[in-house]
Amino acid sequence: MNFKDLILQGIPDELPPAKAYDESLNHAPRRKEILDAEEKKLALENALRYFDKKHHKTLIPEFREELEKYGRIYMYRFKPDYDFYARPIEEYPGKSVQAKGIMLMIQNNLDPEVAQHPEELITYGGNGAVFQNWAQYLLTMQYLANMDDNQTLVMYSGHPMGLFPSHPNAPRVVVTNGMMIPNYSKPDDWEKFNALGVTQYGQMTAGSYMYIGPQGIVHGTTITVLNAGRKISKAGEDLAGKLFVTSGLGGMSGAQPKAGNIAGCITVCAEVNPKATQTRHKQGWVDEVIENIEELAERVKQAKTNKEVVSIAYQGNVVEVWEYFAEQDIYIDLGSDQTSLHNPWAGGYYPVALSFEEANEMMASNPDEFREKVQESLRRQAAAINIHTERGTYFFDYGNAFLLEASRAGADIMSENGKGFKYPSYVQDIMGPMCFDYGFGPFRWVCASGKEEDLQKTDEIATQVLNELRKNSPAEIQQQMQDNIQWIKGARENKLVVGSKARILYADAEGRIAIAKEFNDAIGRGEIGPVVLGRDHHDVSGTDSPYRETSNIYDGSRFTADMAIQNVIGDSFRGATWVSIHNGGGVGWGEVINGGFGMILEGDKASEDRLKSMLFWDVNNGIARRSWARNEEAIFAAKRAMDMNPQLKVTIPNLVDPSLLD
């Protein structure tokens, strides 16, 4: 059978041959033992319901072995033999262009060049899954290939519940991931219910089919590092010769060395997994790899002296870097951490006291001792960071729950009043007031044709639109406009594409609508093929996350999730092609609610109407909430949005003289 026939087949009627476990691939770590004997039977029953009962005797021992060996039933036997990548949209079978576009995005999320653990259907973050198992993938793709524009596919945590009658302006797919009853949203609850096969952790853009490889965060990281450099600048100087120390090269955090190069500094990024390091080096996202700490220190001293722009992967633990650089008095200008500390006990953070292999073994065989090792390592890391910050280092939490987990480990990381952390979240200091409150966030698109020339054309369109908008933009957002124009001009030379022909930039509602309309017009004229619009959930209004996206909300509402829920509800009836809402994300299960969308532009009037309606809401929902929290930049943005669209009426807060409250 050819590719289209295999998609239309869905779950095969006859069992495909069992597959050998490929040790050369980057696999998810073994999950810890958490189910009792009866629950393991239930997990098997849950898995077997995808298959005709004639296969159950064959599959039971196989699935039982997977559950015992890996802590999950992935159904490796059913992974298709065809290659996974974002094919041109016309190569997918189907009756709906929108459904074909979603298939393209799903396959991009599982592309081995993009995904962190593709065999386990995990895109990034250690546990950010597109599906729980391969049966779900097969069935979902079959549904998408058969649906029309009067149907909606309903997805429950990776499971395709089925096709339901709807209408052309409804979303083609509605996705929920990990939507637990609140009292069942602790980390061990994820371990248990994911092992049972009834929920999953969709991360942010993994389970919403909108991951575009590390490029998705390179831009945000570049903007963050540039603005962090502006904060520490003494006389307007740039980052030449300045050192940025961080960690994590798997998944999204692989963006850090590339962003450091674009921002113009020296970057040291530690990574314990050799496969992740090799992948990023092979892809050109990091310039050099060094395994010896003394050699690393000498190389950094040389780079500082010569004011080089260079990114260096240290094959080892970041705690060693912080401690050794303190001993050697190597000054660190900027510091952060991008390990997956939302997932500290299952491969998101590797303790300094153990080798990579020892850690993988212990997290499954002795999770209690592993937890102790992680917390001991966090205390050591925080202590070393404190030494550097006393010498002048600017350290910020990069929204990966480093400060949160360090505080839970008893590290010296709390502020004097004991109510907050010593160090700010990057959203509090940088992205919140400088970008999100003004409505700027990660707008992204994918050229569904797969053609390089379409990506180049869309880059040119976006640059032209931003240049025109900048001419009449207020002074308050001139810096954001200029940073993004500079970014899009240099995007091609920095070779940011991994997987689909995708691009990202930060834009406000005005910019997103204007760019999208020009794309749609170009599609209508036959100049480019269909375009998929989307964004990271890490945006103005998609995510309620008290230690990241909404950490600069100070009215007490940062622990509420109304904004994210309203965002997805509003997107769904304003024209999104698909919407998603997740429990969990970059800061952890139970710590955040985040929503995303995708929109397919087909070059017609219906696409134009949808993009204008949905993109305006998608941004201004967040601006309204941030304005009501009394954020000055958001109040400015809300008033500007009302001037631009008289139908918008936002409740503006009355500000109180603080002296009256004393």
TrEMBL record:
Keywords: Coiled coil, Cytoplasm, Histidine metabolism, Lyase, NAD. It catalyses: 4-imidazolone-5-propanoate = trans-urocanate + H2O. HAMAP family: HutU (MF_00577). Binds 1 NAD(+) per subunit. Residues 85-210 form the Urocanase N-terminal domain. It is found in: Cytoplasm. Residues 213-430 form the Urocanase Rossmann-like domain. Pathway: Amino-acid degradation; L-histidine degradation into L-glutamate; N-formimidoyl-L-glutamate from L-histidine: step 2/3. Signal peptide: none annotated. It comes from Christiangramia aestuarii. Residues 286-313 form a coiled coil. Residues 436-639 form the Urocanase C-terminal domain. The gene is hutU. InterPro entries: Urocanase, Urocanase-like, Urocanase_C, Urocanase_central_sf, Urocanase_CS, Urocanase_N, Urocanase_Rossmann-like, Urocanase_sf. Its EC number is 4.2.1.49. The keyword Hydrolase does not apply. Its cofactor is NAD(+). Belongs to the urocanase family. This is Urocanate hydratase. It comes from the Bacteria. One of its GO terms (biological process) is L-histidine catabolic process to glutamate and formate.
